[in-house]
Known about the structure:
Its EC number is 2.3.1.-. 22% of the residues lie in helices and 30% in strands.
Amino acid sequence: xxxxRDRMLLxxxxxxxxxxxxxxxKACQRLLDRFNATGADEDSLRLDLLGRLLGSIGEGSWIxxxxxxxxxxxxxxxxxxxxNYDAILMDCAPITIGNDVSIGPRAQLLTALHPMSxxxxxxQRWESAAPVVIGDNVWLxxxxxxxxxxxxxxxxxxxxxxxVTKDVPPRVFAAGxxxxxxxxxx
Length: 186
């Protein structure tokens, strides 16, 4: 591992244009190109490619093309989970998706952060990253955006189009921009 990748994984500022990180992203993109070009009946090829791409994917889980991520290796998905069309998982930090999770179309799980007040650092391509954790039996509606550093608790439902900027507790329905708890779930 290179210095910039180490810094990225520690949540420190790192240069996203580091040549080793760029090479890793390109290797990931080559696998994604193959995955996204699979035919409707090529389930076993899709699973093989996901097995090579992701950190881990549990039994009975699947992802529909078109799927995008940065590195792949920082994504772990539990058993019996489903990511619908056009999922974007920016895995500059670990993304953990639990068991029995349903993620709607065009959802985004984002881990990258950019310096807000240090304009020169941003101009020089410095960034950091914070992990995203999705608990067991969570349902993210279509178009949900989960921001860096967020954890969503078990058995929670996030309404379509929500922007989740902070942690959401277990067993609630939450929605909106910014996302907020609407009610408890039994």
